[in-house]
Amino acid sequence: MPVLVEALSVVIKAERLKAVYPGGWDAFVADAPNDTLCSDGTVARLGFMTLDDVRACIRGLEALGLVHLRDGLAQDLVVVDQQRGPVDRCDWVEFGRVRLDEGDVSVCRLIGTTDDTFVTPANWTYQDSLSHRFSYEGS
User: Fold this and answer.
1) DSSP 71-119
2) Which of 33, 43, 90, 129 is deepest in the core (most CB within 10 A)?
3) Whole-prediction pTM value?
4) How many angstroms separate the CA atoms of 92 and 74, rounded?
């Protein structure tokens, strides 16, 4: 099942996240830095508007033992751009678009999953989304 991708998203393997995050999944949800968290059970996604915020998120996750890149290949987490897909080489997610009545949204999912129903953060609506009015600070 794909998760919504807007602006710059950090997509994390849920299994690895649950294994290393102090307090597990519930603690990760409580500690989420913003209201963009969504998960299909196989991947979790956090969205950010700036590269500085993405970098800070990655540093925090790496401090817990998750690995971003090894030999240029995404391991436990990957950065995904709403317009271009994975920023890093990654062999475990696929990126695409889902067509809604209102318009398209970008999504990604763990390779091998087949459910096309996509997951969004709580209280997300297309009308108020970046998918509807795309813009973010790309620096």
Assistant:
1) TTEESSEEEEETTTEESSB-SSEEEEEEE-SS-EEEEEEETT------B
2) 43
3) 0.92
4) 8
Contact by Cβ (8 Å): 70, 55: no
For residue 78, which amino acid is it? V
Determine if residue 54 is left, alpha or beta; phi over 0 gives left, psi from -120 to 50 gives alpha, anything else beta: alpha
**CA dist 44 → 32, 67, 101, 135, 139 (Å):** 11, 15, 25, 22, 23
- Tell me the DSSP string of 2-53: -EEE-SEEEEEEHHHHHHHSTTHHHHHHHH-SSTT-EE-SSEEEEEESSHHH
Domain chopping of the chain, boundaries:
3-115
Which tens digits make up the pLDDT trace of 121-133? 999 887 777 766 7
Say how many residues make up the chain. 139
